[in-house]
Amino acid sequence: MCFELDSEPPIPAISGAAVSHDDVVLEAADGNRFAAFLATPEEPVATGVVILPDVRGLYRFYEELALRFAERGFAAIALDYFGRTAGVAKRDADFEYREHVDATTPGSVQADVAAAVSRLRELGSTSIVTVGFCFGGRLSWLAAAGGHGLAGAVGFYGGSGDREGWVGPVSRAAEMTAPILALQAGDDPNIPPEMNAAFDAALTAAGLEHEIVTYDGAPHSFFDRKQEQYQDASDDAWARTLAFIERYS
Fold first, then answer.
1. Residue 243 and residue 224: Cα distance in Å, rounded?
2. Which residues touch 238 (CB under 8 Å, ≥6 apart)?
3. Can you say whether the dihedral through the CA atoms of 43, 24, 157, 137 is positive or negative?
4. Which of 28, 36, 90, 104 has the greatest CB tally within 10 Å of its CB?
5. Distance of CA 126 to the CA centre of its chain
């Protein structure tokens, strides 16, 4: 997994922001019921964010991240991947997530993304961006090829190649219909420069607006308040994410 359970996003909370939040259960088109965390500003907003977590699924880090988005004026919903195999209850630190990750499929994940997008549209969001991390980073980019009508897709340290039977973002670049932002760790042995270069080339060949940013020396999961030595990279990545959402909303 990318973060420890007590990690928090390296983003300051905005004191006094009028934000509502709630644990919700969504239902996908195939009948799957899955947990999500919804955070919304007090005033109706036209822009929504679907947050795609790392391999552990929904936990505190991503709930806090949804709140940080809402404090800045976006409706945000962080979803869980494992409703089909683990139910909708909260989980403790002993949750064995790997078997549940292995049970996900491209179709099941995108069905859940569609349900999250639909909830945001019900709340008035007309422009929706996905933001994902690690496993969720590649899923965010794949969502741009998922027929969701996204305004954009952001991924932090996501792998873009084919992997474990899944066709990756590089192979599906020609199917993507939304601009792409990739925020990659320079010191990440599982995502080498060659992979990022291949993604860049595929997106360029597809004629898709995109930006791939690599933070030299930053490790996988650098976007973590505990890793203060990478705060500059985190600050820049957060600023780029907000600017991307504003640009394509």
1. 20
2. 10, 11, 223
3. negative
4. 36
5. 18
